[in-house]
Amino acid sequence: MLDSQRTAGRFALVEHPLKPRALGSPVHTHSREDEYSYVLEGTVGVQLGGTEMLATAGMLVVKPRGLAHAFWNASDAPARLLEIISPAGFETYFAEMAELFASGVPDPTRGETIRQRYGLDLDLASMSVLAERHGLVLPG
């Protein structure tokens, strides 16, 4: 919605629509950005460090850099959230990853290279754990 060019690099604004029971992101840690997620619609499950919570429409979730976190749609209805990322720049990660997945099965080496460039630590093993714990439907 807003990228670094439009905000002089101060922040980015991204909308995340989530299908019912979808994983938004497995456990991950940002080394450079703080994130603020505002729930517009639905119920979003959030893991912050070792704590889990449910965020509903109108709630703001603060995810500071260095804190491992994950999020998912915790219900059978669609969910949407707005995410403020500060400073800006990480919003281009989503475009790069979308391009990587567009061709089908992504090259894991290229995915790791992209994550390293953005200073992102990603725990892929957490996908199955979160799916089982919260009844999520994973792609594929």
In CATH, the architecture is Sandwich
The CATH homologous superfamily corresponds to Jelly Rolls
Order of SSEs: EEEEEEEEHHEH
Question: In CATH, what is the class?
Answer: Mainly Beta
How many structural domains are formed by the residues? 1
The helical percent reads 10-25%
User: Using DSSP, what is the number of strands?
Assistant: 9
Query: What class, by secondary structure content?
Result: alpha+beta
Report the major sheet: 5 strands, antiparallel
Task: State the end-to-end CA separation.
Answer: 28 Å
Rg computed from alpha carbons, rounded to a whole number of angstroms: 14 Å
Strand content: 35-45%
Q: Which stretches are poorly predicted, pLDDT < 50 over at least 5 residues?
A: none
What is the 3D shape?
A: globular
Strand order of the largest sheet: 5-4-7-2-9
The overall average pLDDT, rounded, is: 93
Q: What's the total helix number?
A: 3
* CATH topology name: Jelly Rolls
What are the key terms here?
140 residues, alpha+beta, Jelly Rolls, 5-stranded antiparallel β-sheet, globular, 4-stranded antiparallel β-sheet, 9 strands
Question: Explain this structure to me?
Answer:
- Strand 4 and strand 5 form a beta hairpin.
- The strands form 2 sheets. A 5-stranded antiparallel beta sheet has the order 5-4-7-2-9. The protein has a 4-stranded antiparallel beta sheet with strand order 1-8-3-6, with no helix packed on it.
- It is α+β, with helices and mostly antiparallel strands.
- It contains 3 helices and 9 strands; from the N terminus they run E-E-E-E-E-E-E-E-H-H-E-H.
- It has a single domain, classed as Jelly Rolls (Sandwich), CATH 2.60.120.10.
- The mean pLDDT is 93.
